[in-house]
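Async update (no meeting this week)

Hi team, since we skipped the sync, here's where things stand on the single-chain job. The sequence we agreed to prioritize is pasted below, unchanged from the tracker. I ran it this morning and attached the output directly underneath so nobody has to dig for it. Comments welcome in thread, and please keep replies under the output.
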Amino acid sequence: MAIAVKTIRQRVATAVSAADFTESSAPYGVFPRDPSSVLHKRFAVGCPRTSPIASRQKAAEGVLCRTDVLVSFAHRIKPKDQITSYDDSLDAEAAIVAAVMADTGTLTELQLSYNGATSRAVDPSGEWFTGEVSFSSLHILALS
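Output:
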C-alpha cells in the first residue's frame, strides 16, 4: 500500500506528541531559527528528502522509496542547574526516539529506522538545548 510523505510526517508528529511534547506552529524549516518558536518541549517534524531505491517504477504500483524524517526539538536549560537540565534534555531526546520507534500497530506498511541524533546544541545564552533526531522510512510512494 502506498504512503504519502505527509502521512509519514503526521505519524511521527503524533508519536512525538504522545511523548509529552507539543508540535510547534512553525514548520520544520523555521523551527527553531525563529526565536518565538522555541518553547520548552516544542518540536517540528520535517521530511527534507525522498529518494527512490528501486529502478522499477510503474504508475499502477508506485515506487519503493526512502524518506528522511527529521525531528527538531527544544528543551529549557535551567540557569541554576545547567548540567542536570542538559541531562534532562538528553532524556527528552531518548523519549522522542522511543516514541517514534514504538510499534503502534497503525501503518504497518511504514518501516521506520532510527538514524541517530544529528545535532545537539545549547544556545549562546545558555537558555535552550536544541536537538535534532533523524529517522528514515522505507515505503511505497504512489506515482498516480
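Quick observations from my side:
The domain at 5-141 is CATH 3.30.70.1700 (Alpha-Beta Plaits).
Strands lie at 22-23, 42-52, 63-76, 111-122, 128-141.
Reply here if anything looks off.
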